[in-house]
Amino acid sequence: MAIIVCPQPQAAEIGLEVMRRGGNAVDAAVTCAFVQGVIDPQMCGIGGGGAMLVHSPQAGDALIEFYPVAGSRVREDQWERLFTREAADRYGYVLEGWVNDVGYQSVAVPGTVAGLSEALTRFGSISWEEAIAPAIGIARDGFAVSGFMHGYWTTDYGPDVVPNVQRIQATPAARALYTHDGRLYAIGERMVLAELARTLERLAAGGPEEFYRGAISSEIAADFAQNGGFVTAEDLAAYAVNVTEPIRGTYRGLQVAAAGPPAGGLTLLQMLNFLEGFDLRSHGWPSTEAARLLVEAMGWAFADRELHVADPRFVDIPTGALADKEYASRARSVVADRADTTHVCVVDDGGNAVSLSHTLGSASGVVTPGLGFGYNDYMNCFDPRPGRPNSIQPGKTRMTMMTPTMVFDGSRLRVCVGAPGGTKIVSAILQVLVNVLDHEMSAVEAVSAPRVDFQGDVVQAEARIPRVVCDGLSRLGYNVNRRTLNYDSYFARPQVIVAQRDGHLSGGSDPRKDGGAAFDTETT
Hints:
This protein has about 525 residues and is of the alpha+beta class. It has 19 helices and 22 strands.
């Protein structure tokens, strides 16, 4: 049996078709990723970056890291005088003029093209041209604007970021691409990305080299040089993917593999270590005590994230000490007495599995004239203050909460999970794993269950969390915001595949965004 889940149903169906034609999980994930970059152009695309966790029963596990990195023209103190405040989510930074959030200076060197190529070369079975072909057709012929995309454009995400209706018009080329001279596309209206189709055709013909050392790279470098950006031709030519081992831990006797620093896997392992000392199943969900324990795990691990999660090529990270179960045990003793991004998960009938997160961050609003795709705004979460773990340096990537994750029972895959959703990714993946492993929920139940999130200040509770639970947390001293929406896009949107003991696979795509699960019991 083969199965694929992601937030875009059309992309899931195309990925499944790849496996029906004999492709494996990596083939499906890469093809799906290119399609996602067309039909969800502010979430992801060839101007972004990400991480892919690959499991092969024969070859083992590998983490392919292709995060965007700061260009060679950056300086550690370049924005120090523009610093206004940390964002409320304790993740990004607000600067005068929003120079780190939108525009050419917000863009880091993209890694998606190199990362998808590396994955296909190492683990795939189809050609580069075959993987890109479906995306070309959709960009050329057009696609219907989804309700989620339109909602992304119009939703107020607060005072710490540029409104998205302005973001998608930050440059003339972006305005021409994503609006009708400033008027938004309607839900269901067909958007045609002809320039992107031509760029993808050039990429298919010339390979990834076309993006990093060929004509496309020359156009990118010229555009950024003309507009004061930090990405140069030399930066593109020097970009390199990192293939490494995932970070590993255990939870209730099961083995956990995830993307380590600068991604969120270490933070996830810390939360799991913390919760392992409590009988969550006995409390049920939702309940005040289960919510309290989740909130305490999040608060404790997120506090460490701010101090220790950074690019390990530039900062020494005490990974072993932070992931040590005794460290979590000491934290439990303290609290026991106290009152954006997209993702795809794939498993094929050969047992190969992929958890792939890729993103534009919040999207920079920059489109190079004639190329038809948007770039990341990965500079927005670098600390503008010098001398800190996430301070700006050339060639460095910043902290990210992307956390592609797998759980194994011995050699048998048990869960494949990941999520888009910024700072809320790790807390969402945590709750999905707890829902599956402790509360024995199905895949669909696990991603659909009401959720809480705690970034260290206010407990955000979805409206479906019973009032009695929120009141219980308030009486224990927590500042609780019971939100107005039952399925609230504030929270991350996990994608999960769960393997039962009999080998049956089930998938769930978070209903907080358009989601698709495609499976074929007859795949060979």
